[in-house]
Structures are given as C-alpha cells and as structure tokens.
Write a structure and sequence with these properties.
alpha/beta, Rossmann fold, five-stranded mixed sheet, Transketolase_C, Transketolase, transketolase activity
C-alpha cells in the first residue's frame, strides 16, 4: 500500500492542472515529487528553501492575491517553527491556506525530536477557525485533501502520517463514523489509531467512533453515541494526550460523564527506536489500549454499582 505522503504529490499535481487558483509552496522537503508540476506551472509551484517562516509568509501573500496555496513540510516545521507567521499571516490577516504536514508525532524517529510534533494540533487549538483533518488511510487523505482545497479560503490543516489503517473508509470531512456499537461506553479513535482501537476493544460492549476531522469536533455525533450507553468516553488520539478532552467535555456539558484521554505522552523519548517502539512506549498499541480502556470503563461500572 502506498503511504499518505506517496499520494500527496500526484494528487496535488492533478489539482494544479485542474484549478488555476491552486498554488504549492515548499521548503525543500518534498520538492522532488513536484519536479514535473514545477515545469508545467512554474508560477504556481514555489520552493523557498529551508526558510519555514518565509514558507508561511509567502503562502499568505499568495492567498491575498486570490490563490489557494497548499503548504507542505514536516509538522514540526509547518506548525511549530513558524507559529507566529501562522497566527498573524493567516489568522490576523483573515486569510487561509491548506497546510499539509508529514512526519506526524514520530514517523521518523531517527530524525530526533526536531522532527517530531505531537503538540501540533494542540498548538493550532490556540487559534480561531482552523479545520483539522487527521486521515487514517491514503484514500481518506486524498478525499480530505481535495475537500480542503475546495473549501473556499478557509484555514485547513491536513495531518499526514506513515501510520495507517488497513482499509480506508467513506469519510466526509465533517462527521464521525460509527464503526461498532455497544452499551458500556464510547471510544473515539482518531485517524491511524483505529485498527489498534478495534483490536483493543474486540469483544467489549463499547461503541467505537472513527474521527478523521477533529476540528470542528462532531459534538452532535458524540451526543448521539452516548444516548442509551454509559457516559464513559475514551478518546484515543495519535498526538498529544488530552488534546480533545475539552471538546468532549463541552459536547457533553449537560450530561454526567467521565472522559479518558489517551495519546502521545509529554515525556520525551530520547532513543531513536522504531515507530512501533514509540507507539508501544506511549501505550498506543492494541495490548496497552485494551488494558487502559478496559480498566477505565470497568472502574466506571464498579463505581456505579457501589
């Protein structure tokens, strides 16, 4: 199976051919995939070099001229390093773009902590008006990317990862999908953690919701899911632990509930290792998730009986 990032350049190259508003801004990373597109559209495929603040500033300038820029580099260089430009050049100037990241939380462990960005979604949460897509499969990435480009002049972040579920699902960029139904609680699995969540909850009486768009958060979908079920909610995200727990609490503000946020911990892992070892170290593998989810939901039922 190709990766989400393998799919990125071909899809965007076709969008450049199809839509004269589309532009691409790069900072060295990913430029080889756009060599042919740059020859066809030299005025709309721009490589600024290793200058991430300029990457965002140039994209905002293109947006002000009426173009729809797609901006791409590693998440740590797209959201964290040029955050002031993201805040001011897009937010303060009230313009938009499609930011498409690679490397996710720890997709390239050998690159070290400079190339890891588990806090990217939480950081964007400090700003107003961002749509955040977290696809879990290359097919979903293509769907959400096309939707993001077509979203007028909105501010959209698409988070690509080498981690992926075995199958893509029919996502619409808005609503959570109900993958499994149960009565003892709800687990919200975000993007590429779905397969691990399904394995972890096999045989448990739990509803599993699949989220590939986390901002705006599908509050109506979560409220429907907790009707007739215990209001224990477990949120499993492939980035910083607890990033969306406030969104869950806001959605269920009028409903007594408990929420457990699972994700990438704040403790820095200082050895390279493999992606799989990082997943296990953060407790996001199926075995760890089963222990943590089962313990939380089981404890909730025990407290109710008491």
């Amino acid at each position: 199976m190709d990766t989400m990032r393998d799919r990125f350049a071909p899809v965007v190259s076709r969008l450049l051919d199809e839509d004269p508003r589309v532009a691409v801004v790069l900072a060295e990373i990913g430029k080889d995939g756009f060599a042919e597109a740059m020859r066809r559209h030299p005025e709309r495929v721009i490589n600024v070099g290793i200058r991430e603040q300029l990457l965002v500033g140039a994209a905002a300038g293109l947006a002000l001229t009426g173009l729809r820029p797609i901006v791409h580099t590693f998440a740590s260089f797209l959201v964290e390093r040029p955050f002031e430009q993201v805040k001011l050049d897009f937010g303060h100037q009230n313009t938009g773009a499609v930011l498409v990241s690679a490397a996710a939380s720890f997709d390239w462990p050998a690159g070290g902590y400079t190339h890891m960005a588990p806090g990217d979604v939480a950081l964007l949460d400090t700003l107003d008006g961002w749509t955040v897509h977290v696809p879990g499969h290359p097919d979903e990435a293509e769907t959400l990317l096309r939707r993001a480009v077509a979203a007028g002049d909105d501010k959209v972040y698409v988070r690509l990862s080498v981690q992926a579920n075995r199958q893509g699902r029919a996502v619409d960029g808005e609503r959570f999908l109900t993958v499994r139904e149960g009565r003892s609680g709800v687990v919200v699995a975000v993007g590429p953690v779905l397969d691990a969540v399904l394995a972890a909850t096999e045989g448990l009486d739990l509803t599993v919701l699949y989220a590939t768009t986390v901002r705006p958060f599908d509050t109506a979908g979560l409220r429907r899911a907790v009707q007739g079920a215990d209001t224990d909610v477990v949120l499993v995200e492939p980035y910083l632990t607890g990033t969306s727990t406030a969104a869950v609490s806001e959605a269920l503000a009028e409903v007594p509930h408990r929420v457990l946020g699972l994700g990438v911990g704040r403790r820095e892992l200082r050895r390279y290792g493999t992606v799989e070892e990082h997943v296990a170290a953060h407790g996001l593998d199926a075995r760890s998730l089963r222990e943590r989810i089962g313990g939380f939901v089981g404890a909730g039922r025990a407290s109710v009986r008491a």
